[in-house]
Amino acid sequence: MLKQFGRTEPRLWTRPLRELTPETSLGFEVIDFARDILGVELYPWQCWLLIHALELLEDGQYRFRRVIVLVARQQGKTTLASVLAAWWLWVDSARHPDRVPPLKFKVVGVAQNLDIAKEPWTAVKMWCDPDPETVEEAVLAIPALRDATAKVRDANGSIAITARSRAHYEIRAAKNARGKPAARVLMDEMREQKDWKAWNAVSQTMKAFWSGMLIGLSNAGDMSAVVLRQQRDAGIADINEWKAYVESGLASAEDFANGRDMSLALFEWSAPEGCDKDDVDGILQANPSIGYGSMTVASALADIRGMTDAGYRTEVLCQWVTSKVDSFINVNDWKDLHVPISSVRIPKGSRTVWGVDVSSDRSTSWISAAVSTEDGRPFVTVRVKRAGVLWVPDYMADLAEKSGHKEVVIQGRGVPAVDLIEPLRKLGLVVHAIDGGTFALATGRTKDRVRDKGLVIIEQPDVDLAVEGAVVMSYAENKAWHREKSLPVDISGLVAESNALYGLEVLEPAPQEPTPPPPPQAELVTRDDVSPSDVNLAVVGF
Length: 542
Hints:
Blueprint: E1 12-13, H1 27-38, H2 44-53, E2 66-70, H3 77-90, E3 106-111, H4 114-128, H5 135-140, H6 143-147, E4 149-155, E5 158-163, E6 168-173, E7 184-188, H7 197-203, E8 213-218, H8 226-247, H9 253-257, E9 264-268, H10 280-286, H11 297-302, H12 309-315, H13 331-336, E10 352-358, E11 364-372, E12 378-387, H14 392-403, E13 407-411, H15 421-426, E14 430-434, H16 436-451, H17 461-469, E15 471-475, E16 478-482, H18 483-486, H19 492-505
Parallel strand pairs: 2-8, 2-9, 3-6, 3-7, 7-8, 10-13, 13-14
Antiparallel strand pairs: 1-9, 4-5, 5-6, 10-11, 11-12, 15-16
C-alpha cells in the first residue's frame, strides 16, 4: 500500500500579492534558522505556512498584522510556534533597530491558561538556558543561543527569556493579557476564547509598532468561539473577494490591493464541510503532518469510534460544529438508521400521529408524522415545514380530513406552538398537549429508539443537522430538547418528530366516533280512505 501524505496547501488561504521568494518573504529565513541553528527539519506544511505568513511589503514591513492558522490537533503547532518565537527573539528583533530597538522588542505568548502558553516557551528555554538545571538540559542547549541569552526567569509568576540584546519573550494567561506593547504575539488555542477580553487587550498592544504581527493558532471551534469565528469569517470574506476580482480577471492584484486593508491572513487546513468522517481526502486535507510524523490515516480513522461526533470533527477534521455540546443522540447511530423511502412499507389503515412544533423565533413551523411499519417499528418523518405559524390550523384540518387521522401532539406550555392548541381543537382535531416532564420523556424515548435501532427514518438534511446540533436541558432527572440553546440550529423538526413518536407509542389513540345505525328501510304506505281523485295537490306537503 502506498504511503499517504497530508496536504501541504491548506483548503482555505489568503493569496500573496506577488511571487514569494527569499526577497519577498522571511519565511525562507525561518526555515533555514530552524534547520541550521535549532536542528529542526520542519514539515512541508509548516514551511509553506511560514513562507506565506511572513510575506513582505515593498518597504520591508510584514504584509500581515494578523495571521489566523487553523489545523487539526497533533500536527506540530507547538514546534512551529517554538521555532518562530526563537527566530523572532534572536534574529528578527535586530532587523530594524532604527524603527524597533531590541530593548522594546517583546514577544508575547498568550493562551487561555498559562500551561498552554508555556509549551512553546519551554522549548525555547531548552535551546537557550544559560543556567541549565540538569545534565540533560545542558546537552540539549544550543551554544549559540545560550551565549546570546542574558537570563531566564521561571518563578514567582514571572516567566520570561531575555536576550543579551534586551529583546525578550514572555507568556501570559488570557485573563492577564493586558500589558505593555508587544512587537510580536503568539496566541495559542484561540478557540478557547469565549469573550473579547484577551483579544481586545493583546491586539491593541501591537499598534505602537512598525511591522507588528499577531499569529493565532488553533483547531476549529464551535459557536462559542466568538473571537476565532469573527476572524475566520473576515478572512473568508477577503478570500472570496479576491477570487471574485483578481482570479476572475476583473482586476490585477495591484489594483485590487490599492486602498484596501490587506493585513489579515487566513490559512486553514480542514476537511470540506459536510464530508463523511471517514473521508480519506478530508482527513489528509485537515492533517498535513500525516506521512511525515507518527500520525497516519489509519490512526485518524481509528479515532472515529472512540470520540463523539462533535469532538472528532473539531479535533481531527478541523471542522466547525454547530453547538457547544456533544450530541445528545449519537449522530453515527442516527445516520445508520437511514433507509430509502422506497423501502418503507406501511400497512393500510395504520394509525398516524402528527407532531407539530414552531421554531423559537416563530419563523418556521414543522409538521411531522409517526406511523408503524409492517415490521412494527415506528417510522418518523417531517411532513412539511413552512415559514410562519398561522397557516398550520387550516393545513392540519385539511390533512386530517384527507387522511382520516386527527391526533396531534404539541408541547403544551412555554413555547410558541402553544398558540396552535385551541385553534386545532376548534377545527375538530384531537390535541395531546404534553407538559414539560412528558416532553422530556419524549426526548429520551427518541434517544432510546435510535440507540436500540428501533426506529425507521429517511435522510432529511434539516433534521440530521438538528440531531448533530441539538442541545438538551435538565428536567428533573431527564433531559429535554432546548430550542434556544441549540441556536443557530433550528431543532424544531426534530422536536416535532419526537412529539409524534411519543404520541404513537405512548398516548392513547383518539376514541372512535360511534357509527350511526343505518336508516330503516322505506315502507310503502297505502291508504284506502282517500282516492286519487280526492287529493288536492295544491295543499300536499312533499
